[in-house]
Amino acid sequence: MTTQRSFYDVLEVGREASQEEIRGAFRRLARERHPDLFRGSARERAEHEFQAITEAYNILADPERRSRYDQSLVGGAPQPKVNPREVARALLAKAVTAAKAGETVQAAELFAQSVAHDASSPKAHHLYGTFLAQIGRIDEGLRQLDQAVKLEPNDVRIVLDASRLFARAKMFARATRLGQMASQLSPDDPVVESWLDELRRLPSRDGGTS
User: Fold this and answer.
1) Cα-to-chain-centroid distance, residue 66
2) I need a labelling partner for 20 at 20 to 30 A (CA). Which of 27, 132, 168, 198 fits?
3) Helices (H), 16-155
4) CA angle 100, 105, 106 (to 5 degrees)
5) Of 179, 173, 146, which is closest to residue 160 (Cα–Cα)?
């Protein structure tokens, strides 16, 4: 019979670990096992592991939830089950708040956790991508926005933001295709039309299409 790992085992800390030790363990594991470091089947395994790491941290970093969890271990009760999508939404809200407050490092961690918990959320990829672009991490932002478009190609705001970022990266052909997609989604939209006009004035040569 397989024994389920405790949250302490997941974070590789002891039951008596301090809050500082738990935070340090989470940050170390998040850096080592972030899904963006892997490809193919290894990435899928990393996503599951990253989700487990984040879930463990969310429980153990909260004194009240950690206390209840410790009691469940002593009493042999089942470990708490967390809906990944609900956790992702909560993390996303915290990430947006942190970003608005200028807490860049914390916001980046929270956005990454949100995406790891629910990789099917176009909103999470969209907001993470625009945040990354704002802090100068253009290549990573492009990947997130590209994924957001794939997940929700009918959202004009997502498509338009992706077009703008591809143009910023001097990938003008891709930016134009996305701009045209936005125009088809929202005909006669003055914001979209203004962006297309701006695109037409940009250089036609592409710095690399995809």
Assistant:
1) 25
2) 132
3) 19-33, 40-60, 63-75, 84-100, 104-117, 122-134, 138-151
4) 70
5) 179
Distance between CA 67 and CA 60 in Å, rounded? 8
- CATH fold of 7-75 reads Helix Hairpins (1.10.287)
Put simply, whether the predicted model's pTM sits higher than 0.90 gets the answer: no
Segment 96-100 long-range contacts (CB within 8 Å, at least 24 positions apart): 96/127, 99/131, 99/134
Cα 110 from chain centroid?
A: 7
Where in the chain are the domains?
Answer: 7-75, 83-152, 154-210
pLDDT tens digit string along 71-125? 888 765 555 566 778 888 888 999 999 999 999 988 998 898 888 888 899 999 9
Question: Residues, the chain, total?
Answer: 210
What amino acid is encoded at 27 in this protein? R
φ, ψ for residue 120 (rounded to 5)?
-90, 5
| pLDDT tens digits along 14-47 | 888 898 999 899 988 888 888 888 888 888 888 8
Instruction: Write 7-16 long-range contacts (CB < 8 A, 24+).
Output: 7/55, 7/56, 7/59, 7/60, 7/69, 7/79, 8/56, 8/60, 10/52, 10/53, 10/55, 10/56, 11/53, 11/56, 11/57, 11/60, 15/70
| Dist CA 94 CA 86 (whole Å) | 13
83-152 adopts what CATH topology?
1.25.40
